[in-house]
Amino acid sequence: MLSIHLICVGKLKEKFYLEASAEYKKRLSGYCSFTLTEIPEERLPAAPSQAQIDAALEWEALAIRAKIPQNSRLVCLCVEGKPRSSPELAKLVEDFAQSGQRHLVFVIGGSYGMAESLKREAWLKLSMSPMTFPHHLARVMVLEQIYRAFKINEGSSYHK
Asked: What is the pLDDT of residues 76-111, one digit of tens each?
């Protein structure tokens, strides 16, 4: 069975994000072995310097790397990534599963993004949109899109 792991920097606190996240995790359980891991966001001063931000992102990247299973393909969600349509993401997931690979890891950075070093390690850099979203909302959006990919691949009417 395909294993999908979502690693997110930051902890969800708002009830509506928690409920939406829980719903999609439940839905995904019928299609894959799904794991969600939260990495604490590094604390920064109110007006951090770029050097402080970069150092924090590297610490977060170390924590993320420690949670990535061996032999995984890494998908980093970042502004530099390539936008994909839902059917394109579905094909990517289907092709990945059919290739014999087992572990697909999606990573969502914190409020300052993610370390460049981690992005360079990505199998795929994916952009949800050229618009900016709160990273907590991005989590729900990614969960829904992964679920939608499975529904597209099974030929469901979920994706219209």
From this structure: 999 999 999 999 999 999 999 999 889 999 999 999
> Tell me, what CATH number does 118's domain have?
3.40.1280.10
Domain that holds residue 96: 3-153
- On whether the CB atoms of residues 41 and 9 are closer than 8 A, the answer is yes
The DSSP code for 29 is T
In a domain, 60, yes or no: yes
Strands in 49-109 per DSSP E: 72-83, 103-108
Give the separation between CA 89 and CA 146, rounded to whole angstroms: 8
Q: Which residues contact 118 (CB under 8 A, 6 or more apart)?
A: 61, 64, 65, 74, 76, 107
CA–CA distance, 112 with 9 (Å, rounded to integer): 10
Give the number of domains in the chain: 1
